[in-house]
Structure formats: C-alpha cells, structure tokens
C-alpha cells in the first residue's frame, strides 16, 4: 500500500500476501481497489518513470503473456490490436481484469 500511495493511488489497498488476499469477505475493505484507480495505476506503471524501463518491459511482457482473458477481451478487439492484461479471481466468485489495449502501428505510405 505504501508504494501505491507514493505513486498517487490513494484508493487501492494491498494488506495481505498471496494467497490470503484472495479471500473476499463481504464488507471487508482489505486488498481492494476501484476500476478507475486500478486503470490509473496501471497507466502510471507502464507509461511513466515510476518503474525502471526494465521493470516496465517485464510487467508488460507478463501481461501480454497472460492468456486467461482471451475469450473475454481479446475476442472483441479489432483485428491487429494488442492487449496486455492481468486477471484475478478470489473466493465467492470475485473476479477482476485489468487491461491495456492499443492498435498496431502502421507504416506511413
């Protein structure tokens, strides 16, 4: 949580380690975020200098290699678009997906 606060995310909480953080009890605010906060944090991590270039490449590669969201997101993207995503699931049907999608660069004619 301290790192998230340092990069300006005042909403997301990381209170426990894997696998304990997958417990999703009703009303429990531990290990939670909002869609807007998660998207903003991901954007900062991948497009700013919050991480080293090497760490950004590693994070992006992990997300590009994730294939869990294929039927959920990749299948509805326009042809030629790229996606980097991370999925997660917890108890009681909790599920989350965060993704970054971008069009393939085209050569100037």
UniProtKB/TrEMBL annotation:
Cite a single GO BP annotation. Answer: response to antibiotic
Statement: the UniProt record of this protein carries the keyword Hydrolase:
yes
Which part of the chain is the Beta-lactamase-related domain? 2-92
Which superkingdom heads the taxonomic lineage of this protein's source?
A: Bacteria
One Pfam family recorded for the sequence: Beta-lactamase
Does this entry carry the keyword Metal-binding?
Answer: no
Keyword list (alphabetical) reads: Hydrolase
Q: Which GO terms describe its molecular function?
A: beta-lactamase activity
Xref: InterPro entries? Beta-lactam-related (IPR001466), Beta-lactam/transpept-like (IPR012338), Beta-lactam_class-A (IPR000871)
| SUPFAM superfamilies on file | beta-lactamase/transpeptidase-like (SSF56601)
Protein name, as recorded: Beta-lactamase SHV-142
The species this protein was found in? Klebsiella pneumoniae
């Amino acid at each position: 949580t301290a790192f998230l606060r340092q990069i300006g995310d005042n909403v997301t909480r990381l209170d426990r380690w894997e696998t304990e953080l997958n417990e999703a009890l009703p009303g429990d605010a531990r290990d939670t975020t909002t869609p807007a906060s998660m998207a903003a944090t991901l954007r900062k991590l991948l497009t700013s200098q919050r991480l080293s270039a090497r760490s950004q490449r590693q994070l992006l590669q992990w997300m590009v290699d994730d294939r869990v969201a294929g039927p959920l997101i990749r299948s509805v993207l326009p042809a030629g678009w790229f996606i980097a995503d991370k999925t997660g699931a917890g108890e009681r049907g909790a599920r989350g997906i965060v993704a970054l999608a971008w069009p393939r660069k085209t050569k100037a004619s």
